[in-house]
Every structure is written in structure tokens, then in C-alpha cells.
Amino acid sequence: MKKYFIVLIFSLISFPILSQDFNGNYKDKTDSLSFSNGKVIFNVSGFGALFTQMVGEGEYEYFDDYLLINASDYSGKKSIFESIDSSKKDTIVVKIVDSENYSIQGALTEFLSESDKVIRGNITNNQGKSIQAKDHKIKKIKVSNLGYDDIVFNVVQGKNFLVKLAKNNVIENQTVAFKVKHEDEETISIILLSDNFNPGKDRIKSLEKLYKKAQKGNVLSKRLKKEYIPIYRR
User: Fold this and answer.
1) Element (H, E) at 84
2) Under a CB-based contact definition with an 8 Å cutoff, are residues 207 and 67 in contact?
3) Which residues pair with 175 in a beta bridge?
4) 8 secondary structure, DSSP code
5) Rounded to whole angstroms, how far apart are CA atoms 198 and 63?
6) Is residue 189 classed as helix, strand or coil in its secondary structure?
7) Partners of 123 in the beta sheet?
């Protein structure tokens, strides 16, 4: 009898913890958190100054209503570049297009030193081109545009570059922090605290500080509902 009583007590204690675990896809319009086998794929937007979609994936931790996602390499579409032989020795030409190969006008092109200091910066013309006079100090190029994934790559002498920007802001090799609460069995509310979380010496205190800052800034939470795949029986 004592054995069964201990098992019953353990089950009652464990149930609230287990019931708070994540599994499946939580979604609201374009926002989603998809959990599976200790990993999550996220796609969120609209928190404060964040107007673009932020996407990424990785292993996660959940404690005290905080969700930490250690973003690893993203398996979805990312911005890419390729080098092209140049016929001119005095300029660097960067051609920027979208995923359908349409030219992107107004994209910011920054020419950087080895230490990432901006030496020159300009925006692409109506042909999606950025033209810069060669400078031995220029070692890297960064291309960015609102709503697209930024990309940084090394300069290769004698080469021009074709850059294909992917939609969304891809997060990799950073820790993303959310405040997440279970509203009920099918609904969670989320607030983005940081897309590059630095825990410092005390992780909980750092998270609480970020949450208070979000409250002070009146950052509204989002409610995501769990999606269920219907099962059809013959």
C-alpha cells in the first residue's frame, strides 16, 4: 500500500511539470513556434521595433516561464553570394537580387575593414548595383535591406559579386529569449525579450531585467494556438 501511495504522490507532483512541456506547432497568422524532440523552429515578428520576420531553429530550454532557444545553423533559405570575374581593376561591383532574381534597389552595401569598421557605404541603384572604387583597406562587404537576411562576406581581389538576399531575418549562433506562459492546454502567450541574449553572471536576473524592460515599453504579448492535424478514419 505504501508503495502505491508513493507512486501516486510522485505522479501528482510530476503531472504539472510534464503538462507544461511543449510539443507540436503553435501558430497565429505568420507567427509560429514548432516544437519537436527538444528542438524548435521559430518564425515571429511585430515585437516593438521588430517589423520583419525573425526565423531560426535550435535546441531549447524552458524554465520559470522563460524560453531560451540556442539558435544553430538554419536549414531554411538564407542569403547567399557568388564571386564573378571582373573586367575592371579599379572598381568592385556588387549586384543584389531577391530569391526570384529581381534587382533590389535601395539595399545598403557597406565596405568594411578587417576589424569590421565601415570604410564606405552606399545603396544600390535601380539595377540593384553598388559600385565602389577599390581600396586595399576594404576586406569585407556587408549587404542589408529591411525585410531580408543580412549577409557579410570576404572580398576577393579581381572579383565582383552577385548577392541573392533571402526574405526574413535569419538568426544563427545566438540565444533567443522569450517570456512564455501557458494560457490553457492549447494556447501560449509569448513576448520576445532578446534575439541575442547574454545571460551574464545570473541568468534569471538578466531575464527578469529584460522582462521588466518589455513591460515598461508596453510590449504586447502574442497568443499562439496549438495546431492539430485531423486524423481521417476510413
Assistant:
1) strand 80-85
2) no
3) 70
4) H
5) 16
6) strand
7) 108
pLDDT in tens, 68-83: 999 999 999 999 999 9
C-alpha 39/C-alpha 50 separation (Å) is 24
Place of cell 538568426: 171
Answer for the pair 164, 79: CB distance below 8 angstroms, yes or no: yes
How far is Cα 118 from Cα 137, in angstroms, rounded to an integer? 10
Tell me the C-alpha distance between 112 and 107, whole Å: 16
Distances (CA, A) of 127 to 76, 104, 116, 130, 138: 27, 7, 27, 9, 23
User: 220: which DSSP letter?
Assistant: P
Residue showing cell 543584389: 96
pTM above 0.90, yes or no: no
Question: Identity (one letter) of the amino acid at 35?
Answer: F
What pLDDT does 231 receive?
Answer: 53
C-alpha cell at 103: 534587382
